[in-house]
Design goal:
This protein has 294 residues and is an alpha+beta fold. 63% of the residues lie in helices and 12% in strands. The chain has eight helices and seven strands. It has a five-stranded mixed sheet with strand order 2-4-5-7-6, with helices on one face. A two-stranded antiparallel ribbon has the order 1-3. The two termini are 58 Å apart.
């Protein structure tokens, strides 16, 4: 009889969990479990005892003389339900905690992988090769500008190495990095490349994943042809509390040396860190809209 009652109570847990979830109302779930299991135990035990009593053709159990014994059995069943639900609650809490720790570790690992991938794009040999070539040319023409270029390049890498482990940075910090990167690109391409930033002050303390804006600027330069007759202009603005980064497509380059991480990396980090998605529009212009994170 004890085994049968234990199975019935055990298999009633999923039904109770559906009605009163542990995560939303743990106190009410514990109380409901005690009351339901206590009631079920008493109904089953006294029901089986009554059937057994009737099968013998006697009424020796449910008489005034056995009142105290039946009361003690009822109290014992209630205490058993109480202890069972406390133990069940303890095991369930530990299981949920352990599962949460594992999920947190997995998310953190994925976040670090995405950040390292973004860092890898900034340390690409192609970018370094172009920067060294630009420096070599500047040293022959303008040593002061070459010094500024080196400082901007060093500042860019300092930001990358300092922030790649941070899940989020302020818009103001990211813009400072973008401005330094823009100076590098402007030095290299001159009037063929323009960046127009129109951000109100109130968004500067909002958060975004690091390297996000810079990667969009880099992708625009990487995927479009630039020339004196076809200057590339990248615009950044705020639309409906979202960052809009767009550029008119000047023509696709015939061959692109890309690590293929840009947009997918940004989208994955937004999904992971804020459960939000980015919007991509590809028509006459290429536009990426990014949510601001409070």
């Amino acid at each position: 009889m004890g085994i049968f009652i234990s199975y019935v109570i055990h298999f009633s847990n999923p039904f109770i969990n559906t009605l009163v979830p542990w995560k939303r109302q743990p106190g009410l779930r514990l109380l409901t479990g005690i009351l339901v299991h206590g009631t079920m135990g008493q109904v089953l035990v006294f029901g089986i005892l009554w059937i057994y009593d009737q099968s013998l053709g006697a009424s020796s159990l449910f008489i005034p003389d056995t009142k105290d014994i039946l009361l003690k059995i009822g109290i014992l069943l209630f205490c058993t339900a109480l202890i069972y639900n406390i133990i069940y609650f303890a095991f369930h809490s530990y299981y949920e905690y352990s599962k949460g720790q594992v999920m947190e570790a997995q998310l953190k690992r994925k976040q670090i992988q995405l950040q390292l991938t973004a860092l890898k794009s900034q340390l690409s040999p192609h970018f370094l090769f172009n920067s060294i070539n630009t420096l070599s040319s500047l040293f022959q023409k303008d040593t002061h500008k070459a010094e500024l270029f080196i400082r901007s390049l060093a500042g860019s890498y300092e930001y990358v190495l300092r922030k790649y482990e941070s899940p989020l940075v302020s818009v103001a910090e990211e813009l400072s990095f973008v401005q330094a990167y823009y100076f590098l690109m402007k030095t290299r391409f001159g009037e063929q490349f323009h960046l127009d930033i129109q951000f109100p002050d109130y968004v500067l303390q909002s958060k975004i994943p690091p390297l996000t804006l810079q990667m969009l600027v880099e992708n625009a330069a990487k995927h479009n042809v630039m020339g004196p007759e076809q200057p590339l202009e990248v615009k950044m603005s705020i639309i409906d509390e979202r960052i809009k980064v767009s550029n008119i497509k000047t023509g696709k380059r015939p061959k692109i040396d890309s690590l293929k991480i840009g947009l997918q990396n940004i989208a994955s980090r937004y999904e992971l860190l804020a459960n939000k998605s980015i919007e991509i529009t590809d028509d006459q212009s290429f536009t990426v809209t990014l949510p601001l994170i409070s």
